[in-house]
Amino acid sequence: MDANAAKAYCRVDDLDDIREDIVGIRRHLHQHPELSFQEADTATLVAARLEEWGYAVTRDIGGNGLVGTLRAGSSTRSIGLRADMDALPIAEQTGLPYASRNHGTMHACGHDGHTAMLLGAARHLARTRNFDGTLNLIFQPAEEAGFNSGAQKMLEDRLFERFPCDAVFGIHNHPGVAAGTFMFRSGPFMAACDTVKIRIVGKGSHAARPHLSVDPVVTAASLVMALQTVVARNVDPMETAVITVGSLHAGNASNVIPEFATMELSVRSFKPEVRELLEVRIRALAETHAASYGARAEIDYLRGYPVLVNSDAETEFARSVAVELVGEEHVIAPFGPIAGSEDFAYFLQQRPGCFLRVGNGQGQLMLHNAHYDFNDENIPVGAAYWTRLVERWLAIQPG
Fold it and tell me: CA-to-CA distance for 173 and 360, rounded, in angstroms?
């Protein structure tokens, strides 16, 4: 693309006049977070703004999801951009003047920022209409649900049949990388995530008479250590897998050996065959390990989000837009695979596209932390990026 053509597309400073308003929206959302499938007020705010700017808004898709549609010109090309809206069950400890007013609920993953960036792009695209085709802005509920998530529910409501998209794009902030830096990776980018609930059933007894018990605490403690061998000794060392025991509960008193212990695992992988291997080994290990102590293991293996796979052409296109907007020095490609999971993966199973990351600042706290906050420096950069991506994808052709 020549320099003259590039000038026709959005730059970051083109959003200077609306930056304060969009940051204000972000901080309002941060003050009023809503959990998965409870995002009614958030959706109402988003819909009102989109309608104010001239979008046709369709509500109640997959719960509180909505789509804002804007058409310009005569092209049949289309594009979808997605932002997630839900918050997490975390008690905020930032002390910010715009901290959460909903006790125990917090935007600790930056979905308030993702929504604000897309709204910033929506406003600018509505006033310039520098594109030819159909723009679908997808505001999704319940990304944090883990199972039967907002993406799945929107697809069950025939999202792409009702709002055709030639390609779909999404973005997530990434603490630890400088704000305004974009990260891309073709192919498998984010992990599949499964949850395993294991109940070790033993036999209770007085703490002074352990020989009369089948101690589920000892069994569970031993199983925690044994599970660490699955990745170390069953998975090819050239592959990536994670087994984390994030929850372990047993008993209520020091002088009582309880009847049972419960534990929950987060299991992550990047290939279907590794995912299958992990389930086989975890099930076998839990059952035989418990039996070796005279206990019994009851296992509930819950399949979560699949591997997020970016398509090559759309990822390269998205990368080129970032290079134009912020320069090669602020683009990392390829970026390494991420063991976190994301239900945007379901959208990418239906349509080609790219899920990318934008730095939230070096030294910033990680996601899902009670002290985390989205970096508002990303508001104009992210909004300008989305705007230019649409303008490039739905470029007005000469003549």
Answer: 6
Count other C-beta atoms under 10 Å from residue 334's C-beta.
13
Q: Which of 177, 178, 30, 37 is nearest to 116 (CA)?
A: 30
Q: What is the pLDDT of residues 270-312, one digit of tens each?
A: 999 999 999 999 999 999 999 999 999 999 999 999 999 999 9
Residues in CB range of 184: below 8 A, 6 or more apart: 310, 315, 318, 319, 322, 331, 332, 333, 334, 335, 354, 356, 357
For residue 102, give every residue at least 6 positions away whose Cβ sits within 8 Å of its Cβ, in sequence order, or none.
32, 33, 34, 87
Convert 78-131 into a string of H (helix), E (strand) and C (coil): EEEEEEECCCECCCCCCCCCCCCCCCCCECCCCHHHHHHHHHHHHHHHHHHCCC
Amino acid at 369: N
DSSP 3-state of 154: helix
Q: Which of 115, 198, 186, 189 is nearest to 150 (CA)?
A: 115
Host H or E run for residue 297: strand 296-303
Q: What contacts 127, CB < 8 A, 6 or more positions away?
A: 53
More confident: 364 or 210: 210
Contacts of 327 (CB under 8 A, 6+ apart): none
The tens digit of pLDDT for each residue in 13-60 reads 999 999 999 999 999 999 999 999 999 999 999 999 999 999 999 999
**What is the Cβ-side half-sphere exposure of residue 157, based on CA atoms within 13 angstroms?**
21
pLDDT number for residue 7:
57
Q: How far is CA 29 from CA 95, 107, 146, 248, in A?
A: 16, 8, 22, 34
Contact assessment for residue 365 and residue 175, using Cβ atoms and an 8 Å cutoff? yes
Whether 384 contacts 325, CB under 8 Å: yes
Give the pLDDT band of residue 397 (cuts 50, 70, 90): confident
213 and 202 Cβ atoms separated by less than 8 Å:
yes
Cβ contacts of 160 within 8 Å, gap of 6 or more: 80, 350, 351
- Are 117 and 357 within 8 A, CB to CB? no
> What residue type is assigned to position 324 of the chain?
E
Q: How many Å separate Cα 178 from the centre of its chain?
A: 19
- Non-local (6+) Cβ contacts of 93 within 8 A are 370, 371
